[in-house]
Design goal:
heterodimer, A: about 160 residues, alpha/beta, five-stranded mixed beta sheet, B: about 500 residues, five-stranded antiparallel beta sheet, four-stranded mixed beta sheet
Chain lengths: ~160, ~500
Amino acid sequence: MSTLILGLGNPILTDDGIGVLVAEEVRRQLPESSAVDISEVSIGGLTLMESMIGYDRVILVDAFYGKTATPGRIRRMDLNDLRKISPTQHSASPHDASLITAYETGKSMGFPLPEEVIVYAVDVENISEFGEKPTPAVAAAVPKVVTAILKELSQS
Amino acid sequence: MKRITIDPITRLEGHGKIEIFLNEDGDVANAYFQIPELRGFEQFSVGRPAEEMPRITNRICGVCPEAHHMAATKALDALYHVEPSSAAKKVREMFYSSFYVTDHTTHFYALGGPDFVMGPDAPPAERNILGVIHKVGVDIGKQVIDTRIRNHHLIKTLGGRGVHPVAGLPGGWSKAITEEERQEFEEIAKKNVDFGLFSLKLFDDIVLANQEYVDLILSDAFTHRTYYMGTVDENNHVNFYDGKIRVVDPQGGEFVKYPAHDYAKHIAERVEPWTYLKFPYLKGVGWKGLEDGMESGLYCATPLSRLNAADGMATPKAQEFFEKFYETLGSKKINGRFEPVHHRLATHWARLIELLYAAERMVELIADSEITDPNIRQVITSTPDEGIGSVEAPRGTLTHHYWTDDKGILTKVNLIVGTTNNYGPIAMSVKKAAQSLIQKGTVISEGLLNKIEMAFRNYDPCMSCATHSLPGQMPLEVTIYDHNGQVIDILSKNI
């Protein structure tokens, strides 16, 4: 099964870089011979969907920000969970579609998109200030997410 | 005075919101669109080597990193007093044109287009790219995605990385084009021209052939008579990469034309007590508040503005559509140039004409014998001090201004990003949209959020620069206050 791990986020926007940090750490801990592809990207919507084409499984790591966020909390979600919180109505960005909309768009055009999309989201507190280091609670979540992802990979 | 607040983005709660103030009669007195701003960029940058700026600033925005990369690279040219070779400029412009094709394609099909293709009154669940594909066919959807993928390939090859390019150097570009790549890029460029023509035909068939949509474009609700800004070449044709900044008045006369490094002589920023945003305006006209007309210094910098500020397009097919655009929208020629079109929804059509121009420009550049010249970088010998770089970002004129010590370490940074130029006009558009649905204290909540979204969407504003954070949706919240500041109603979507 071909697997892609994508760390999403802006590495110079304090907690927003959490996905990138996790992806870098997973890369360090996986043996070089591992067939898993790992990438760090600051993208969303259509570009994100396009980068998933051809894989059987994609694990996304991203920051979660909202009224119910508790900094450092880790959420594991699948596509159905995303569908529930992200109806195909408006985008987070006025420039792009939401991931679910982009995914359904790609599917409807017959692109080979992964059936299994797993999202690890870490609740964050500061994503509006420039900085290269996450806040302490968010930083503490990094090894936990890494462990969870490695476990997930070893079970497949 | 009643006060209505619309909070557009949960993730930047407390920062990004629309506020609508009603007068005693319950009519809209004023509306302000407060775009969330990321904080601390200057502190983050100062003390770093200036040559890092093309790679740092392209992280400011998840949507137009290529524009920041290019403006930063041009600012370094000026900072280090080094002029890129003609071949280097062409490689940069090739890269930049490909970015324009991608960006404009995405905006039209995924964002602005759905309002027209599906209709402004279609349910939001259908008013997105999925709905568009359902209506126009899967094959067209595939063309949209193919266009994005082939141009992303070019951007990655020439930029050294996908999404966040690294190739810009003071005085040059680190990646030259090989003959093999030239042949490949030629195919990409030709396909882009076909796609641009196809998209304009689609606009013809779906929008222009429908009187209801034409009436909507021409309606007063989406019309503002402002000044217009855009970069033009020596023939006063639209240029995205380089040229002089030209501003025309609401009647179409040239108000001023200046080199980008003179921006501070012509543009001032107005600070208002109710927002941390600064509203840029033309010094030579003056600040008259959020008003349009000849006497108000507000200007607009969008695809529509660039067409209005120019005398024409530099490529033949785009020029044909430029003429059709003005003739169809009832603009007359005065002193050899068309009167400006003030209908904001025409921005979507202007965007497609720019897409075609970018594609045609790619065909021209790739056919140029210099395009595979490997000598596109040079040794720097002068001492850095201060530099200004400017390009047309898809969302408006983008200016980077850096000051350094004699070792090239940044001491001060100033950026005017594309959307900033349009803060005033966006606020006016939101006000008009609100006025049509809030009268005498009666708020027609059905459609209010959609209409306001539509009003600001044509500006394609950069509201946030890390747009991918979950949950990945754009909530809108309208809080209505009575004249005593008490909440009387809350309308929301996707909260």
